[in-house]
Amino acid sequence: MRVPGRKRLTVGGVGHDGLMYREYRPPLPLGDIVRCLWSARIQGSFPIVPDGCADLIVAGGQVFVAGPDTTAWRSTLASGTVLHGARFRPGHAPNVLGTAASDLRDRRVTLDELWGRRGREAAERLLAAPSALPAVVLDAARREAGDTGGRADPRMELLLARLDSGVSRVGEAAHDLGLGQRQLRRRFTEAVGYGPATYLRVARLQRALTVAPRVADLSALAAESGYADQAHLSRDCRDLTGLAASEYFVLGGRCPQEATVVARRGPARSSARGALPVAEPDVR
User: Fold this and answer.
1) Cα Dmax for the chain
2) Counting CB atoms within 10 angstroms of each CB, which of 55, 111, 161, 186 has the fewest?
3) Sheet with strand 20-24: strands edge to edge
């Protein structure tokens, strides 16, 4: 699940609907794997949109993995529920969770279902102390590194960086990677959860969310975010968020509507990472 907030909410801030959301920079041993740690309190309903990431979440008496989404959904957790999460960088969840990201696509999977007895023990630990999230993730990453080598595919890392940078087509980003189309798609899907074309749409939407406060209208938003035109923006927004672009985006710094509180994870690349408070949980 992608839970709350987008950079609409200042770090530690309160959303217009009372949604509390805070991000923390992960401890150094997790910097290459985890985009951020976060905590939130649900207040009302809000759309949760794709961002290319998977999260490990402690909430509502459960510990579960929210896989990469391909379309928006709405949280069913009760208002007032407190959540704690670790958001994996795109392509890195398999190196911690021990399963292909594609197996988790559009799914919420409890940790005991994913890891069996080890998952139940980790879940008990996290329910007792959510601050142990970094330690649990680090333990799992070390375990996977021992079993599989635990390293992200450097060609997929390069492709992700290029897709995030604003290319208009996958071919522009993948032309010199030395992989056939089928092999490229298979590797990318296993690492990220869906193919590079879908990820490119998700990255473009996340870019639009970052640009929206600086522009006055949807036409300018489309142009600055890398869409072919406003109709292109409207189609992708409807497909990925379930809302019209005019309903979803907050333009020119106007007060956000509930519909614009986007789930969990922040921009395609966390531009404010250096400004985030550093998490201080147990990482032993």
Assistant:
1) 53
2) 161
3) 20-24, 34-41, 82-88, 55-59, 62-66, 108-110
* CB-count exposure of residue 64 (10 Å: 0-12, 13-18, 19+): buried
Q: Give all domains of the chain, ordered by start, each with its CATH number.
A: 20-275 (1.10.10.60)
For the chain, what is the HEC assignment?
CCCCCCCCCCCCCECCCCCEEEEEECCHHHCCCEEEEEEEECCCCCEECCCCCCEEEEECCEEEEECCCCCCEECCCCCCCEEEEEEECCCCCHHHHCCCHHHHCCCEEEHHHHHCHHHHHHHHHHHHCHHHHHHHHHHHHHHHHHHHCCCCCHHHHHHHHHHHHCCCCHHHHHCCCCCCHHHHHHHHHHHHCCCHHHHHHHHHHHHHHHHHHHCCCHHHHHHHHCCCCHHHHHHHHHHHHCCCHHHHCCCCCCCCCHHHCCCCCCCCCCCCHHHCCECCCCCC
- For the record, the structure tokens of 62 come out as 């459960």
Q: What is the mean pLDDT of residues 126-140?
A: 97
Position 239 pLDDT exceeds 70: yes
CA-based nearest residue to 107, from 54, 158, 144: 54
| Beta carbons of 251 and 8 less than 8 angstroms apart | no
Q: By the 8 A CB rule, do 257 and 4 touch?
A: no
Residue-wise pLDDT tens digits, 165-194? 999 999 999 999 999 999 999 999 999 999
What does the block give as tokens for 151? Answer: 């390293």
In terms of pTM, does the model score above 0.85?
no
Instruction: Categorise residue 52: left if φ over 0, alpha if ψ from -120 to 50, beta otherwise.
Output: left
- Separation of CA 280 from chain center: 22
- Compute CA 211 distance to the chain's CA centroid, rounded to the nearest angstrom: 18
Shortest CA distance to 242 belongs to which of 221, 263, 228?
Answer: 263
